[in-house]
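Changelog note: in this version the structure field was regenerated for every chain. One regenerated record is shown below for reference.
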Amino acid sequence: MQFNPGWNSSSVNLLHVRAAGPGDSLHYVWSSIGAPAVLLVATQSPSSALRVNWTQLLSPNPAGAIWIDPPDSVVYSSAVVFTKLFEFREAKPSGQLFYPTYDLSEFSWDSLNHTLNLTALTAELSGVPATDPGGGFSNGSLAFRVTAYEAGGREERLPSLLHTADSSQLEFILAGVAPRGNSSRFVLEVATVEEEGAVRRLRSQRSIDDEYTPTIFEVLSLLAEPHNGSSTLGFLQWKATAYGSRSPRREDGIRCRAQGLRAANGSLPLSSIVQAYFGDTLGSSCTISALNVSFGGEEGEVYQERRYLSWSVLLGFGEPPRDSFSPLVISIAAVALGTPLALLLLGSCLLLLAQRRRYSEYEPIN
């Protein structure tokens, strides 16, 4: 993990996370220059490196300021941008009442270097609106907590996402922000950028196994696939829940919904690092999609009471990890399904034996 590689100032935030394999390397580039975003780049070279022209990156025209060296080693690149935070409440009979939008590209962000932990491979990007006339952020903040991994495993804290060494976890945190209405609910707008030849698709999977995330049976994945659908290039994956506590438990769950993927070319404020990497192809060959993720039930009580919201999402390359049934769940299922079957077989055997043992006191009439 490198903070602002090649730049001595901490007035801006750029975090480079590089994972090197025997024949390839993966790059995650996180930044709050403009709207907070992450670049994901996979290469076929174990020694590929990130290059940044800082003067150009911080200029009004950053196109071409970020690249991977050697350029011909890149096999896949994508970006995820967190653009806006909406707040609304249910209003009868009109439906929903939206408050002024929080544009994340206009936030003021703390230095990420203060939270960088090279041992735990974590960092946190925290910010507030540059202008906050309503005072909603006077005692609160919005943050993105990044975690990189050196090996596969599972997070201990709920929602206990399964991860691989190729993936990173992002935790979106809203803490202490005052709602602007009774029973307010929040919506985070997430945009993705794909180069020509790739598209995003939203997939929902349900399972009967809620061992690691109690009461949550749905996993959602935002997949990047080639047009022919032959393989998965990259993904975002999350459980259909958020939490209203720093130490989440089952009862702290907050309903989380994905409101459908839509085309968003040219309609979203983009991050400077996205413009710096993709350059002029953003407006021509790249595909930009957007997804709204909403938090809270119909009444929004959990956030209203606790003023805390945490949503975790896994980002990575290739196929997303899949949960398999644990030995405990398999044992329970075997007992639950096997016991009735065993009783049925036993009952049938006893019935047959009883029928064979029937006899009478009378002699048969010839």
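Spot check on this record: The chain has a mean pLDDT of 90. The longest helix spans residues 327-356.
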